[in-house]
TrEMBL record:
Protein EC: 1.-.-.-
Entries under InterPro entries matching the protein: FAD/NAD-bd_sf (IPR036188), Flavin_mOase (IPR000960), Flavin_mOase-like (IPR020946), FMO-like (IPR050346)
Cofactor(s) named in the record: FAD
Protein name: Flavin-containing monooxygenase
Pfam name, any one: FMO-like
Highest taxon in the source lineage: Eukaryota
Amino acid sequence: MGSTDLPAPPLNVAVIGAGLAGLLAARALKIEGHRVVVHEKSDRLGGTWAYDPRVESDPLSLDPDREIVHSSLYQSLRTNLPRQLMGFSDYPFSTDGDLRTFPGHPEVLRFINEFAAEFRLVELIRFETEVVRVERVDSGNDQWIVESRNREMSSNELFDAVVVCNGHHTIPKLADFPGREKWPGQQIHSHNYRVPDPFENRVVVVIGDGPSAVDISLEIADVAKQVYLSSRSPKVKVTKLDCRDNIWQHSKIDHANENGEVVFEGGAVVHADIILHCTGFMYSFPFLKTEGIVTVEEGRVGPLYKHIFPPKLGPNLSFLGIPYMTVVTQMIEFQAKWVARILSGKVWLPSEEEMETEVRQHYQLMEEKGIPKHYTHALQFELDYLDWLANQVGERVHETTHLLLKRYLKFVMEGGNKWRHREWEPNLM
Ligand SMILES: Cc1cc2nc3c(=O)[nH]c(=O)nc-3n(C[C@H](O)[C@H](O)[C@H](O)COP(=O)(O)OP(=O)(O)OC[C@H]3O[C@@H](n4cnc5c(N)ncnc54)[C@H](O)[C@@H]3O)c2cc1C
C-alpha cells in the first residue's frame, strides 16, 4: 500500500513505548494533528534511561517465566556519547545539572522528562498498560487491532496506524562457546549487572569489547581479584591493561571446562568464578502478529524500508529506533518526523515494489561485501542516513553534529585510558 491510500488525517495512532522513541513519535504525530495514544507498560517514562535497581531472577535471562526488567542500565553508567550529541536538533541537551561531557544516566532521564513536560506528552501516555497484541484487522484492511492490558482490564482497540517504539536493549544475546552450559561458575549478562559488590574477591571473565564491557571491567576491577576481558576481535593482543594491575585483555573463549577452567583461543587458561556476558541484545516484538511478513532473523528486522517501514504494511506499521552505532537521539527525531508527515499525506512513500527492491538491494550488497546479517542495522557512525531522513522533512543535520561526531570518533580511537575514563572536553570553537 502507498501513503496515498491512507484515510484523511487526523489519524488514530497507537505508539508502543514511552522511551525516547515513543516520546519523539508522540511529539511529531501531535504536531501533525494526529490523535495519539502512547502505551507504556511501566509506571514511568524514559525507557532504558529509567534506571531500575532490580535485576531479573535468572541472571542470564533465559527463564521464560521470569519477570522482565526493561532497563539495562548499571548504577554508575555515564553516556557513551558526549552530551552535545545526546539532544535533539531542535531541543538541545540540558545545559545545567551534571555538566560533565559524558553525564550520568539521571541527567538523561531529567532531559527526557523535561522534553515530555515541555511538549505536553505525558497526558498522551497510558502508563502500566502493556501491549500484548498488534495485528491487522484483516489482510484487505489497513486498520490495526491493539490489544493491551493494565491492572484492571484488557482491551482491544482499532487504530489507523501503529508506531512500534519498544526498544531493543532488554533481551540479552549470549556468547556461545563449547562447555557454556556445564561450566560450574556463575554466569550473568550485563542486562542484570547493577553494582560491583557481588564481584568482590572473584576471578571474572568479561566477554565483549563494547562500552559496557569496558566500563564494567574497570568498575569491578576495584573489588575483584582478577578481571579477564575476552574479545572476539581478531586484532586483539593478549596483554595487561596499563591502567590497572588486575585487568588482562584476552582473545575469544575457545571453550569452558566442567572443572571451572575457561580456555581462550591461543591456549591461555584461567580458573574463573564468574563469566559476565557484555554481548549485546536481541530485537524482540512478542506482541506483533504479521503472519511472517516481518521477521527477526540473526539480528535483522525485516524487511524494513529505511529501517522503518515493512513494504507490505507501511506506512500504517512503522518501527522507530532500530538502527544503532549512530547519533541515536537525532536519528529517532528525524525518523519520527518522517513517519508523522507520511501519515499526514504531506510526504509520500515509494510504491511497495520500489521499497521491496531497495531492501533487497541493500541485503544483496551486504552479502556481496561479506557483511553478516546481524550488521543490517549498524550504521557505523556514518551520518548519510540521518542526512537523508532530515532531507525528507525539509531539515538538515547541523554541521556541528557532523564535526563533533568526527572528533568524538577520533577520541575513541586514540583516547586509550582517557576514553575509558571519559576524560574529554571537546573544543567546539
Ligand atoms: C547500557 C546502555 C547504554 C546506552 N548509552 C547510550 C548513550 O550513551 N547514548 C545514546 O544515545 N544511547 C545510548 N543507549 C541506547 C538507548 O537505548 C537509546 O538512547 C534510547 O533509550 C532508545 O530509546 P527507545 O525509546 O527506542 O527504547 P527504550 O528506551 O528501551 O524504551 C522502550 C519503552 O517501551 C516500553 N515497552 C516495551 N514493550 C512494551 C509493550 N509491549 N507495551 C508497552 N510498552 C512497552 C518499555 O517499557 C520502554 O519504556 C544505551 C543503551 C544501553 C542499554
